[in-house]
Amino acid sequence: MARAILVIGEPGTGKSRAIKDLDPKQTVIIKPNKKELPFKGSAVKYGKGNMVVTTSLPQVGKLLMDINTKFKGVKNVIIEDITHFFTKRTVDERKVTGFGKWMELAASIKQNIIDKEAILRDDLTLFVIGHVAEKKDKSGNPELSLHTPGKMLDNNIMIPSYFTYMFHTDLIENADGTMQYRFQTNRTAFKVAKTPEGMFPLYIANNYELIKRYITAYQTDSEVDLTGIDEDINVSQETIKYTVPEVEAPAKSSSEDPEVEDVVDTDDGLSGDESLDISDEDEAQETASEEKAEKKAGPKEDDLSI
């Protein structure tokens, strides 16, 4: 069983930068767009061979299974950014009405990402990165959690509930006016995060390799190995006092999808990386047949190939 880690936060708060210290020879990044990675040397470390661009959820599922069986040297998989996978599907089906399409989207996310955790190898760590949105929990309290296209998806799949580890980006201003980027490891105020008791301090540096080492130290009852972490990992433990916003009830809509939020896709690029053998033709065929295939039988793991 792989280890799955959910990381959420506003754009530009350090989610992608946290990839920096992972070994690129052991890491594959699955991206829904061609956005550049925000750290020094990223173009040299990641490209043909360890980065794939696709917006197809079934294709993500196939990639995970092939990495699992055919690329045993890969220890880390980054799905960046899951919110944009939602966006692509929502935009493609913007003229489709009814609740059925949201149930199908929920099923596709569960089949192709969440359910894979249980069948992937034990030495794989799956990082799922997403954006955030203000919403209300089941008790009506405001919270800042994973952004999804609407309440139908939240109510029927509750994505965060499938993760033991959920980190939330956090920024604090230093005395010199610079910003300190960190991950929040458990819930405070209305920001949703969770990790096992005593595993992490409340805030840690935004670094995925560091997260893995904290988990290993906790599970083996040993000290955290900081070898090769080439940055200052000491972050402020000061908790910012947030003003919890009022979350207004959604406006009534005349459409058949009264609880679906508007989503705008701002990313153009869709392509496949030849080293993992997702050709343009395969991608086009996958996009054209995705809805039909999911409705009929869902992805078949026997047919996966990279």
Structure description:
- The chain is α/β, with parallel strands linked by helices and 306 residues long.
- It is built from seven helices and ten strands.
- It has helices at residues 42-45, 57-70, 82-92, 100-114, 151-157, 208-220, 280-296; strands spanning 3-8, 27-31, 51-53, 76-80, 125-130, 132-136, 142-146, 165-173, 179-184, 203-205.
- The strands form two sheets. An eight-stranded mixed sheet has the order 3-2-4-5-1-8-9-10. Strands 6-7 form a two-stranded antiparallel ribbon.
- Strand 2 (27-31), helix 1 (42-45) and strand 3 (51-53) form a beta-alpha-beta unit.
- Helix 2 (57-70) packs parallel to helix 4 (100-114) and helix 4 (100-114) crosses helix 5.
- Mean pLDDT is 77; it is low at 253-274 and 278-306.
Chain-wise SSE layout:
Blueprint: E1 3-8, E2 27-31, H1 42-45, E3 51-53, H2 57-70, E4 76-80, H3 82-92, H4 100-114, E5 125-130, E6 132-136, E7 142-146, H5 151-157, E8 165-173, E9 179-184, E10 203-205, H6 208-220, H7 280-296
